[in-house]
Amino acid sequence: MTNTLQTYSSLSNINELSKKDLQALAKAQINEILDADSPEIAFAFLHKITTLCDTVKKGIMEAAITEVEKGNNHAFGIKMAIANKSTYDYSNNELYNKLKEQLETHTEFLKKLKTKITEVDDETGEITVHYPPLKKVSTYIKSEF
């Protein structure tokens, strides 16, 4: 069997590092990048590395699951276990779909508000105050090939 990390020989010492060591290495890398005044270049490079890693992990996932199920669940200080994640699909529920549609309609109504408005139900006298949504802005770098 060949060394599976041979392809990544320049990174082979990473398999000896603990999580704490990796975090320290990351902090050192951050400082070096900031000192070199080239964070955008490093960001672009790391985008490529992340794409590579994500693609490789996805491509080997089924084979890795098979091995972990066989008991090969520890490598390079990483403990692995098979886990399941459940999600729920409510599309077969009529009431859920109706409420979801009402929520979407109300959301669109609120997005159009510039100031709060007050409504009074003529039959019950119930007062409802509608406020425009609070706008939150997050800054990120959109990166693509």
Give an overview in words.
There is one protein chain. This protein is mainly alpha-helical. The protein has one domain. It has helices at residues 19-35, 39-69, 94-111; strands at 74-75, 78-79, 117-120, 127-130. A two-stranded antiparallel ribbon has the order 1-2. Strand 1 (74-75) and strand 2 form a beta hairpin. The longest helix has 31 residues, at 39-69. The protein is flat and about 75 Å long. The two termini are 35 Å apart. The mean pLDDT is 91.
For the structure shown, list the relevant keywords.
8% strand; mainly alpha; two-stranded antiparallel sheet
Give the strand content: 5-15%
In helices, the fraction of residues equals 40-55%
Q: Which structural class should the secondary elements be placed in?
A: mainly alpha
Largest sheet: 2 strands, antiparallel
Tally of contiguous helical segments: 3
Strand order of the largest sheet: 1-2
> What would the average pLDDT be, to the nearest integer?
91
What string, H for helix and E for strand, traces the elements in order?
HHEEHEE
Low-confidence stretches: none
Rough outline: flat
How many beta strands in the DSSP annotation? 4
Give the termini separation: 35 Å
Q: What's the structural domain tally?
A: 1
